Automatic annotation (TrEMBL):
Belongs to the 4-hydroxybenzoyl-CoA thioesterase family. InterPro entries: 4-hydroxybenzoyl-CoA_TE, HotDog_dom_sf, YbgC/YbaW. It comes from the Bacteria. The keyword Iron-sulfur does not apply. Gene3D superfamilies: Hotdog Thioesterase. This is Thioesterase. SUPFAM superfamilies: Thioesterase/thiol ester dehydrase-isomerase. It holds the Pfam family 4HBT_2. The gene is ybaW. Keywords: Hydrolase.
Length: 135
């Protein structure tokens, strides 16, 4: 499933150079992931099964400066599922243009909320995550 989230760049997102501060992209990407989880129904599914997403690695490439007044379109999609982790690919575009402000690869594990340990991605969990690859 390809999910889109729109975010308006505000003055408080900017640094002294008047473009979006690099740390704000982490917030934009997280907002988009939450939107994805809400719209897919995964928040409820994970809660019902006592699981949580835990981010273990984020790699962000900054491409073009976004500035105040821009609307950013953040796309989120699953790109890979492994034995204990999965990867979500995200891209931040300046809406109305072909300009990519940033892109990221976000690796997460599924944590058992009772034990606090990462679980293997197999069985019903693998099926749930794999459906996102094919959508």
């Amino acid at each position: 499933m390809l999910h889109k989230t729109l975010i308006k760049v505000r003055g408080y997102h900017l640094d002294i150079y008047q473009h979006v501060n690099n740390a704000r992209y982490l917030e934009f990407l997280e907002e988009a992931r939450w939107g994805y989880l809400e719209d897919s129904g995964d928040i409820e599914w994970f809660a019902k099964h006592g699981l949580a997403w835990v981010i273990v690695n984020i790699n962000i490439n900054y491409r073009v400066a976004a500035t105040m007044g821009h609307t950013l379109e953040v796309t989120t999609r699953f790109s890979q599922i492994g034995g204990k982790s999965a990867v979500v690919a995200q891209e931040v575009r300046i809406a109305g243009s072909d300009a990519v402000a940033a892109d990221a690869q976000v690796t997460f594990v599924c944590l058992d909320q009772k034990t606090g340990k990462a679980v293997a991605i197999d069985g019903e969990l693998r099926q749930r995550l794999a459906q996102h690859l094919s959508e």
